[in-house]
Specification:
It is a single chain. By secondary structure, the chain is an alpha+beta fold. The chain folds into three domains: about 50-265, Orthogonal Bundle (Hypothetical protein af1432); about 280-445, GAF domain (Beta-Lactamase); about 455-610, 2-Layer Sandwich (Alpha-Beta Plaits), CATH 3.30.70.270. The protein has helices spanning about 10-15, 50-55, 60-70, 85-90, 95-100, 110-135, 140-150, 160-170, 170-175, 180-195, 200-215, 240-245, 250-255, 265, 285-295, 300-315, 355-370, 385-390, 425-455, 465-480, 495-505, 505-520, 545-565, 585-600; strands at about 320-325, 335-340, 350, 370-375, 390-400, 405-410, 485-495, 530, 535-540, 575-580, 610. The longest helix is centred in the C-terminal third of the chain and has 32 residues, at about 425-455.
């Protein structure tokens, strides 16, 4: 199949502007346009104390969508299978669930049929939970969740587009894309086939079939119920059912009440559509741009990404944002660097290899610096969309000064709505600011690394001679200005030429690295160790008098000798120490330290000497 069918077709004018409206095909997510139950009463707030578990148990569509989003491949394998509404609520979190509760209705949805299916699912869930308690083999919480989603194949039939998609795609391939836990996958299959078979979940299947039959008997049938469903009643274990169905109407009311709903409000009057209800107010884009500029002073990319992804969701009115980059040999794999989807669970599956069509869309977006609407296609493999658990997404390139940093992928999966290509211009403006900041951060980091390399000794990682001289001049000026003490130590490895001649230059390099390690470990963070020549080192100690510097010198020469013994090398060091005086320039200061060093050499090496004012 031609991959271009999954990509927006842009006019020349749109391509120049970097924007484009998606030309959607006739394939949509089968649940798209189906409202969550609470969206029928958008002005009624959730009651205080209501729990995530209650929200899920009052709405089968919320449960189905939640199970899908909690198990998308990008998150990796779940630590455990969500086997109850409470576990699912914890996996999703309040923020994601609240966003999902806002899914509203398409004009094409038959709300009367939808309401009948809601009630049938709620009744089946309640009865399954009661039967689970009576039977004792299957956890009641699992029975309740399974009963809630058991009519999975019927929900897409409530919209013409959803039904058309299922006919084209097939219910089983679509259900596989939902990544339901195996037990819950079995739940909808067994009720559709009305045959328990010999599956290990047979006890759950028996409960679900009985619960569904009980719901039908007590006045909660499927919408447009087929008379053949009456055959289910022959299988009902009536000895269980009499107890389970007690006060069923009141139990349904109680479940709805836990989320601030009631049957009377939902039944009458019920609007034909909620499509025209007021859209939520979106904050001005300028606010998002200012947020980006506020983090631009950072020298790290992570804070920038942490601000960028939520900004895309907030100021472009989308639910989820993912940042991906090409990695690996040949740049054939995408790495998920960061995501903002309201779910706190960390990603464990970080890599995905897009299909050729998806790769083409990403490449076109980067090359044209435009936003592309990547559309789902049930007849072609789409690993990237599958990885995200999405049926479509906007691709926004993150660029700065012609450099591609990666892509933002945006969708509205929580609300079961398509991504909005109408925000393309705003998206490019918002992400463009962050892309420019990203490039600036990288340029500053390169400049810092370049400066550091110019000032650092490549072998030891200490400051080199040039940097040491600049540092010493600066500290001399500060000492004079603030009348603070300053000490300088000159160090020289003993018999270093002999070591090189005996053991070779590689061993000599090892000795130099060992000494530099000892200096780092035995000096304060405010001291500056430097390598100023072959085997010569310099230590600058601001705010340090001679007595304090003497303690450091004694600690260093003994530590160097001990470190040499540990690597079986005869490493010792001689030290000359002096302090800065008001009349000093850099030559006089260095000469005094050098004379003190040679005094240590003359007295037998492996020691320190001090040249200080009386």
């Amino acid at each position: 199949m031609d991959g271009k069918k999954s990509i927006d077709t842009l006019s020349d004018e749109q391509a120049e502007a970097g924007t484009g409206q998606a030309q959607r095909g006739d394939w949509v997510h089968p649940l798209q346009g189906l409202p969550n139950l609470r969206s029928l009463v958008p002005d009624r707030p959730l009651p205080k104390g209501s729990r995530k578990k209650d929200w899920i148990l009052s709405d089968p569509l919320l449960a189905i969508r939640g199970l899908h989003l909690a198990r998308i491949p990008a998150l990796g394998p779940s630590p455990e299978e969500p086997s109850s509404a409470e576990a699912l609520g914890e996996a999703l979190g309040s923020a994601a669930l609240r966003k999902m509760l806002t899914a509203h209705s398409s004009p094409q949805v038959d709300l009367d049929r939808a309401f009948a299916l809601w009630l049938h699912s709620l009744a089946t869930s309640i009865l399954a939970e009661e039967l689970g308690r009576i039977q004792g083999e299957v956890p009641p919480e699992l029975c309740s969740l399974a009963g809630l989603i058991h009519d999975l194949p019927l929900w897409p039939t409530l919209t013409p587009q959803g039904e058309k998609t299922i006919q084209r795609m097939g219910i089983h391939p679509w259900a596989e894309k939902l990544h339901l836990p195996p037990t819950l996958h079995f739940a909808w299959q067994v009720t559709q086939a009305a045959d328990i078979g010999r599956d290990r979940n047979a006890p759950l299947g028996q409960i679900l079939l009985a619960a569904e039959a009980g719901a039908i008997v007590h006045g909660y049938p499927h919408p447009g119920q087929d008379p053949s469903e009456e055959s289910l009643l022959e299988e009902v274990p009536w000895d269980w059912m009499e107890k389970a169905t007690q006060n069923l109407d009141q139990k349904i009311e109680a479940r709805l009440a836990s989320t601030g709903l009631d049957l009377a409000t939902l039944r009458c009057p019920r609007p034909k559509s909620l499509e025209n209800r007021p859209s939520p107010e979106i904050p001005p884009l300028e606010e998002g741009i200012l947020t980006g500029l506020s983090v631009g002073s950072s020298d790290r990319i992570r804070p920038l990404l942490t601000a960028l992804l939520p900004a895309c969701c907030r100021y472009l009115d989308h639910d989820r944002a993912f940042f991906v980059q090409w990695v690996g040999r040949g740049k054939k794999q995408l790495l998920l660097r960061s995501r903002s989807d309201l779910i706190s669970r960390p990603s464990k599956n970080l890599f995905v290899q897009p299909s050729p069509a998806e790769e083409e869309a990403l490449g076109f977006s980067a090359g044209s610096e435009s936003t592309i609407h990547l559309l789902g296609d049930p007849e072609a493999p789409q690993p990237l969309l599958e990885y995200l658990g999405a049926t479509d997404c906007l691709i926004i390139p993150v660029t700065g000064h012609g450099q591609l940093h990666g892509h933002i992928l945006l969708d509205r999966a929580c609300r079961a709505q398509p991504a909005d290509p109408g925000v393309s211009t705003k998206a490019l403006a918002l992400v463009g600011v962050y892309g420019q900041i990203w490039t600036s951060i990288e340029l500053r980091k390169r400049e810092f690394r370049s400066n550091r390399m110019a000032q650092t000794d490549a072998l030891t990682g200490l400051l080199n001679r040039r940097a040491a001289i600049q540092l010493l001049l600066r500290e001399m000026e500060r000492s004079k200005r603030q009348e603070r003490p300053l000490s300088v130590l000159m160090l020289d490895l003993d018999r270093f030429k002999q070591m090189n001649d005996t053991y070779g230059h590689l061993v000599g390099d090892k000795a130099l690295k060992t000494v530099s390690k000892v200096l780092r470990e035995n000096l304060r963070a405010t001291d500056y160790p430097c390598r100023i020549g072959g085997e010569e080192f310099l230590i600058v100690q601001p705010d340090t008098n001679v007595d304090e510097a003497s303690l450091a010198a004694a600690r260093i020469f003994t530590a160097v000798e001990e470190a040499g013994k540990q690597i079986d090398l005869p490493i010792t060091i001689s030290i000359g120490l002096t302090d800065f005086r008001e009349e000093d320039d850099i030559d006089t200061l260095m000469n005094r330290a050098d004379k003190a060093l040679y005094a240590s050499k003359d007295q037998g090496r492996n020691r320190f000497s001090v040249d200080a004012e009386g």
